[in-house]
Design a protein that fits this description.
Blueprint lengths: L18 H4 L6 H6 L3 E8 L4 H14 L1 E7 L8 H7 L8 E4 L2 H10 L3 E5 L6 E2 L9 E5 L8 H6 L2 E4 L11 H25 L1
Parallel strand pairs: 1-2, 1-6, 2-3, 4-6, 4-7, 5-7
Helix pairs in contact: 3-4, 3-7
Length: 197
């Protein structure tokens, strides 16, 4: 006879909620115009894959950031490959293109933005060990070589996502999502502190 007893859950099992009930996934343009954006700009520097660009548009929409800057040879909408992973978020996230990523960073710094490179460097810290300052611009780089040296050098600091396996980094779109939601977590916590003060 087994000594293992069946334990009856005290709460109902977790179930998914149909999208039409869970949330209004199609706000009107007027509703979007009045929704405050997090004061964060993300610069995508020489991103090779248009599918990665589209995925970053979608994460940028989810975190509701101020703007994406598409630097260097990063592809720009409209492109079918971007739309495939952006799923319409290329229309909800303001974006612009620049051939000069360093100049774009310096212009934002003059407006008070803290500039952060998401890159392994000799001075990078874990992305969760930093208290970010707002407004903020953060940079992600090419899938193969990362953020260009001159672009990283223009930033105020560098952060990295620690890796515990064989590879030294995550896919750039995945890393972007991890970073943007840590930044969003800190921004939300800061807003709550200000409301309670």
């Amino acid at each position: 006879m087994s000594s293992i007893r069946k334990i009856t859950p005290l709460i109902a099992p977790i179930r998914t909620i149909p999208h039409d009930i869970f949330r209004d996934n199609n706000p009107t343009l007027e509703e979007l115009e009045h929704r405050p954006r997090m004061p964060v700009v993300a610069l995508l520097d020489n991103i090779r894959s248009m599918w990665n660009v589209g995925a970053m548009f979608r994460s940028a929409d989810g975190a509701w950031i101020e703007e994406l800057i598409l630097g260097g040879y990063t592809a720009t909408p409209p492109r079918q490959e971007i739309s495939k992973t952006a799923l319409g978020s290329e229309y909800s996230v303001p974006w612009r293109h620049t051939d000069h990523s360093v100049m774009a960073i310096k212009a934002l710094q003059k407006r008070g933005y803290q500039a952060v490179a998401l890159e392994h460097t000799t001075r990078s810290n874990s992305y969760t060990d930093i208290q970010y300052q707002f407004p903020l611009v953060f940079v992600v780089g090419n899938e193969g070589v990362g953020v260009q040296d001159e672009v990283a050098a223009a930033c105020d600091l560098a952060v990295e996502i620690p890796q515990f396996g064989m590879k030294s980094s995550l896919n750039v779109a995945v890393a972007f999502g991890v970073m943007i939601y840590e930044v969003r977590r800190q921004w939300t916590a800061l807003q709550r502190q200000m409301q309670q003060a």
